[in-house]
Structures are given as structure tokens and as C-alpha cells.
From TrEMBL:
It comes from the Eukaryota. This is Uncharacterized protein. It comes from Fusarium torreyae.
Length: 257
């Protein structure tokens, strides 16, 4: 497979006739033919990853959760997979475009999952399901990784619902890379606060305030005990007391701390 995908004749053909997708399809078909045909019984972590124990390798990794959307003119539960397919091809073509330096030295991964009713979950509100898609690389490639990952993210964040023309509410996997990346030329956290988590952020703070009423603690107490620089910036905007007073004043007991 390495010989095939790095063959000069393949690269020359791609440049000559602009057949990037066709070349990738040929290489992918060859890879599928090379797979073993017999079933193998294994542990779940090994079944979920393409190589045994790969989950123990130190990597750089950016992953987004993309809502599945309804097919225009179809039944309400009919899914239009066009944005998901586009996200998949965007990452593949960018990987081949940068094959001279090969910043992506681990696989492109994608899985389809459900939605969520957890307030701050990136899958929240995705009634038709969620596409979880990520690109990874080895830690040894960290010095050339971020520009490539940013270019992939730019493609993914620009995807729209074919039925409405509106951009998808694509959100980050919280436990992976996202903080140092930009969306629309601004820090990603700014879009999360003002657009993609605008309502959820307030609901989350209100829920915490409601929980604290019976225990006689406030959001200010919560910040002092558990917050960090990221939480300060995302949830509290550096003005905890003002935010806290507003939320408590909307509660049933009117207390503020």
C-alpha cells in the first residue's frame, strides 16, 4: 500500500488530470482487497481501533461532533449524508495535498452516534444523530501539525445544511484539541460562547445555581473552588459576581451571595 500511494506515477497522474478523488478511491479499493477475510474475535478496544493497542500511543488529535441533518423533501427521519461525506473527503484530499510533509501520520476516523440531552454535550440537540470525525498524528509531528489541522477544521466548520443553507452547529470534542484553533479568523472559544453554546452556557449556569440554592452555595463559591483559566473565560467572562447576581435574581428565593 505504501508503494502504491507514494508511487510517482500516481502523483503525476493526479496533477495531470486533477483526479484526486479517483486516485484515493483506487488506493482505498486496493487497501480493502488487502484486508483479511476471516473473522477475528478480539477485545472491544482492539476492535474499535485499526491497530492493536493504538489507543496507548501519544498523539495530537482534533475531533468535531457534526449534527446529521434531514433530507430535503423526504420523511422527517430521512438523513442527508452529503455534509458527512463532504467532511470525509475534505480531510482525505487535504492529507494527500500535504503528503510531501505528511502532517497526518495517524488515521482519519469517523463514527455515527446518537444525540444527547446533557446540557454541555456537543451532541446535544442532534435528534437525527451525530457524526464524530477526527484527524490525528503522532506526537513526533507536532511541529507541523497545527497548520494542517486548522485547514481541516476550516473545511469542516464551513459545511452547511443542504436544505436550509445554514452552517451546521459543529462543536468540538471537549477532551481533545480545540482551544488554540480559530473559526472565521477568531478564537474558536468566541464562537462557542456567542453562537454554538450561547443558550447552553446560560442553562448550565442556571442549573448550577438551582442546585446550589438548597446547599447554600453560589456560583461565585463554585468558581473559587473548582474553576480554572478556561472555565473563567468560557462560563464566567471574568465577571462572576455580576453573572451570579443575575442568575440568582431569576431564582425562586431571590438570594444573592
Amino acid at each position: 500500500m505504501n508503494i502504491l500511494q507514494n508511487a510517482p506515477i500516481i502523483k503525476d497522474l493526479i496533477q495531470l488530470v486533477d483526479l484526486s478523488e479517483a486516485a484515493v478511491t483506487i488506493i482505498s479499493a486496493a487497501a480493502m482487497k488487502a484486508l483479511l477475510e476471516q473473522h477475528v474475535k478480539t477485545f472491544l478496544p482492539d476492535a474499535l481501533h485499526f491497530q492493536r493497542a493504538i489507543q496507548n500511543v501519544r498523539v495530537r488529535d482534533i475531533e468535531v461532533e457534526m449534527p446529521l441533518v434531514a433530507k430535503k423533501g423526504g420523511p422527517t427521519d430521512a438523513i442527508d449524508y452529503a455534509p458527512v461525506q463532504q467532511a470525509w473527503w475534505d480531510a482525505i484530499l487535504l492529507a494527500y495535498k500535504n503528503s510531501d510533509k505528511c502532517p497526518m501520520r495517524m488515521p482519519l476516523e469517523m463514527r455515527i452516534m446518537g444525540g444527547s440531552d446533557v446540557i454541555m454535550a456537543p451532541q446535544r440537540g442532534n435528534s437525527l444523530g451525530t457524526c464524530s470525525i477526527e484527524v490525528l498524528t503522532l506526537y513526533s509531528a507536532r511541529n507541523i501539525w497545527q497548520p494542517f489541522a486548522q485547514s481541516v477544521l476550516d473545511k469542516w466548520m464551513a459545511l452547511k445544511d443542504p436544505s436550509t443553507g445554514e452552517r451546521l452547529k459543529t462543536r468540538p470534542h471537549w477532551a481533545k484539541e480545540w482551544y488554540n484553533y480559530n473559526v472565521d479568523g477568531k478564537p474558536w472559544i468566541e464562537r462557542l460562547k456567542s453562537v454554538d453554546y450561547k443558550d447552553e452556557k446560560q442553562e448550565f449556569l442556571q442549573t448550577l445555581a438551582d442546585i446550589g440554592k438548597d446547599a447554600n452555595w453560589s456560583l461565585q463559591d463554585l468558581q473559587a473552588r473548582f474553576s480554572n483559566d478556561l472555565f473563567d473565560k468560557f462560563f464566567f467572562d471574568g465577571t462572576v459576581q455580576k453573572e451570579n447576581d443575575k442568575i440568582w435574581s431569576n431564582g425562586t428565593n431571590g438570594r444573592a451571595h
